[in-house]
Amino acid sequence: MGGVIDLRSDTVTKPSAAMRRAMAEAEVGDDVYGEDPTVARLQEEAAAAVGFPAALFVPTGTMGNEIAVQLLARRGTEAIVDADSHIYNYELAAMAAGAGVLPRVLRGTRGAPDADEVEIECRPKPYYDAPVSLLLLENTHNHAGGTVLPQSRKAALLDAARRHGVRAHLDGARIFNAATALSESAAAVASGFDSVMFCLSKGLGAPVGSMLCASAELIREARVIRKRLGGGMRQAGVIAAAGLVALRENRERLADDHVRAKRLAEALAATRGFRIDPAEVETNMVIVEVDPPERAEAVIEDLKARGVLAGMMGYGRVRFVTHLDVDDAGIERAIRALRARA
Ligand SMILES: *Cc1c(COP(=O)(O)O)cnc(C)c1O
Question: E-strand spans in 83-180?
């Protein structure tokens, strides 16, 4: 009943009452001077959550990824990216503009490049060819439909890079969704990487913020780069407090989002005008092909008129993302809206 069902993204969640209370009561200090106890606590808990020694609170995932590229890749070298990755498509060429790094684009399957191809790209080259110095992976993979990178594939990819001294960063914006789907700890999902970024502001439900996690030495350097990028925040404990609530309270419940995404995918598979294999929906994203594809925008407009918001994800593809502000009743309402228009 009532309000709009917003399935455009898991970034649309509003801070809960518990988060707002924590924000109001947060102990704060100037974090540029390293004096904000709430930020310090968030950094400790975030690092522990992914099994790394240290972490840095950053305003956005994009900044976290860019800091990682500046930290790990040498200027004038290449970084391997998947053709559909967030870093390559949705971060305004930051790795070129800021880090001086050229993306070496590989077209993979289900969100990751092929390990053999990665190995070939990482091999030593003659001095007049730019070497690869960094491998960038994404788990879960947004554009591929919230897909999960199996641990065995991750191991093969990291092994291919390591063999040639190439470092590796994980864009783990939704690492806890990946861990949930794999029935693994987030630390297991993050293991083997030099650094990992994850978002508090996606499925975990915080209003703002992401974490960059790495060794203590790398994080000391990351702090300098963050300041240079204009990301040194003062009484940031006010937002870190919401991040702590998100990290402590909203990891377990991600499984509910996955069940709801599956339910939506199954309903779409049984509805005329949509093509989707529900078996491929592993986490909280449902990307459906509209048949015929030119109707995709009309589908979104029509759903909107019925109080359900979805997003475009490339030509003829519509994306629905489940999150903590959409319950079972919301999903059923979305399904009714889809059927009414089919
Ligand atoms: C959301 C997201 C990011 C970072 O996004 P910001 O909006 O900058 O916080 C990075 N990678 C992936 C895969 C994402 O989905």
Answer: 102-106, 132-138, 167-171
Q: Give pLDDT tens digits for 213-228.
A: 999 999 999 999 999 9
DSSP code string of 96-107: HHTT--EEEEE-
Same domain as 284, residue 235: no
- Name the domain boundary from 192, 223, 249: 249
The answer on 34 and 174 residing in a single domain is: yes
Atom of ligand 1 nearest to the CA of 65: 10
Task: Give pLDDT tens digits for 121-172.
Answer: 999 999 999 999 999 999 999 999 999 999 999 999 999 999 999 999 999 9
pTM for the predicted model, two decimal places: 0.97
Residue whose Cα lies nearest atom 4 of ligand 1: it is 61
* 327 pLDDT above the threshold of 90: yes
Q: Is residue 29 helix, strand or coil?
A: coil
Q: Ligand 1 atom closest to Cα of 171?
A: 11
